[in-house]
Every structure is written in C-alpha cells, then in structure tokens.
Design a protein that fits this description.
This protein has 6 helices and 12 strands. The chain has 260 residues and is of the alpha+beta class. It has 2 domains: 168 residues, CofE-like (60s Ribosomal Protein L30, Chain: A, 2-Layer Sandwich), CATH 3.30.1330; 83 residues, CofE-like fold. It has a 5-stranded mixed beta sheet. A hairpin with a 4-residue loop joins β5 and β6. The radius of gyration is 19 Å and the shape is globular.
C-alpha cells in the first residue's frame, strides 16, 4: 500500500542549512524509521533556499532584451532578466507569462522563478529587505542536490532510499498546476511497461509511466501550495523497484515535442 506522510517540525530554511540533518530529525519527530525502498519527496523551495538561490531584485540590471520582453508581458523587467538568464529559449510570451525551456531542459512558466513564501534573511535587517524585492530561483542541479541528500541520509540510517525534488508546473493541455519532478536520485523517473501483459494478455506496446511525476503530484497534494508549511513528505510502498534515475528520463526530445 502506498502511504504518504508529511514530516513534522521542519523549520524555515536558511542558506547553508543541512537539509539531510533536518529531515533526519523530522523523521524522528514524526516517529518514522527509514526502511529500504522508502522515498523522501522534497519541495524545491527549501532546496533552493538552503543552496542560496534567493535573489534581491534591487541587485538586478535588466538588459535591453529584458526591457522589451517586460513591456510585452507586463512583468517586472528585473524578473524578466532573471528568467532570461535561467533559460535556454523563450517559447511563448503574453501578458503575465513567459514560457521557456529552462536551462535544466524542461518547459515551464517564468523559469520557475517564484515570489511566494520567499522571505529576506535575516528578516528586518540591512538594505533591501522588503519581501517583494526577493525571488527564488530553482536549484542549480536538482539531481545532484537529491543525490547529496540521499547519500547523507543513507549513511546516517544504513538504508537504501530514493530522494525526489519537486516543483509545481503548468501543463500545455490542462488548466492548473501539478507537482512535477525536477530532480531525483535512487528511484526511476520513467518506468517502461512495454512488453508486459494486460488483464487479457495483450502485450503493451507504448506504455511508459512517468512514475516520478506521478509521485510528485501525489506528494504535492500532501504538501499544499500556500501556508501549510509541509516541505517534505515520506513515502512508503512505491509500486516500482528503486534504481538509479535522473531527470533526463522524463524530458521529451525536441523532435518529439508536438507542442513547440
């Protein structure tokens, strides 16, 4: 049975915090002892904060291209400048949204740059401490971030686990956002079921399951999107065998992307 449990007592994260140590303490506070095959799903936001990916907009000087795109999209030119720096390519632009291929390879809105739940630290001290002046970028390399956290927790607990870092993404064919994997270690991103029989012994021909994204969406429901304060979810009973995996498994090649 698949069980998802929110972890308790994870404090607000600051740059330089040891997420693995904090998660280990939260596991104890939640009375969970890690077992082989467990997975920890972590919100991108706390990984970015721990890695110092907060940017004060007062330090950003927009380029000419950013100023032009900001006029078209009615967005802050400084935010647009950061979007351009974090992207390989701008795919679509309209008032309120810029759709890009992020430098990590996936397509998303506004390069994943976020204003919500971003607080200047230390609060109330120094120049430029207004909350609206701060934004948060995605981690530099979420796969590596997941691998580092996994290694520390496996060493501390003597278990073999998976770690999944997730963010909220929109989808080209649906309204609303859903949890999506942006970094993983120790679990499959994609599970290939081709060749396996269905109930009537028909051999599947094209079925590949985005297992990491399915788990990301489930964990996102537990985490919430506003003031819930649940950035880590423990998972037990994942229905697929754990193995080494990476974000690349989930990225559709450009020549197969019918939405570009």
């Amino acid at each position: 049975m698949l069980t998802l449990t929110p972890l308790k007592n994870i404090p607000l994260i600051r740059q330089g915090d040891d997420l693995a140590d904090m998660i280990d303490k939260a596991l104890h506070a939640t009375a969970i002892q890690l077992q082989d095959g467990d997975i920890l799903v972590i919100a991108q936001k706390i990984v970015s904060k721990a890695e110092g990916r907060m940017v004060n907009l007062t330090t950003v000087t927009p380029s000419g291209r950013a100023l032009e795109l900001a006029t078209k999209t009615e967005k802050d030119p400084r935010v647009v400048e950061l979007i351009l720096r974090e992207s390989n390519e701008v795919l679509r632009a309209r008032p309120g949204a810029i759709i890009v291929e992020h430098r990590l390879g996936f397509v998303c809105a506004n390069a994943g740059i976020d204003h919500s739940n971003v607080t200047p630290l230390p609060a109330g001290k120094g120049p430029g401490v207004r909350a609206e002046d701060w934004v948060l970028l995605l981690p530099e390399n979420p796969d590596c971030s997941a691998a580092e956290i996994r290694q520390k927790l496996e060493t501390a607990t003597g278990t073999k686990i998976g770690v999944l870092i997730i963010d909220s993404h929109g989808r080209a064919w649906r309204n609303g956002t859903a949890g999506a994997a942006i970094g993983l270690s120790g679990l499959p991103g994609l599970v290939d079921l081709r060749g396996q029989p269905d109930l009537f012994d028909f051999r599947l021909r094209i079925t590949q399951v985005g297992a990491a994204d399915e788990l990301a969406a489930a964990a996102s429901l537990v985490m919430g999107q506003a003031a819930e304060g649940i950035p880590v979810v423990h998972v037990r009973g994942f229905p697929y065998a754990l193995r080494e995996g990476s974000l690349d498994e989930l990225l559709r090649p450009k020549d197969q992307d019918l939405f570009r």
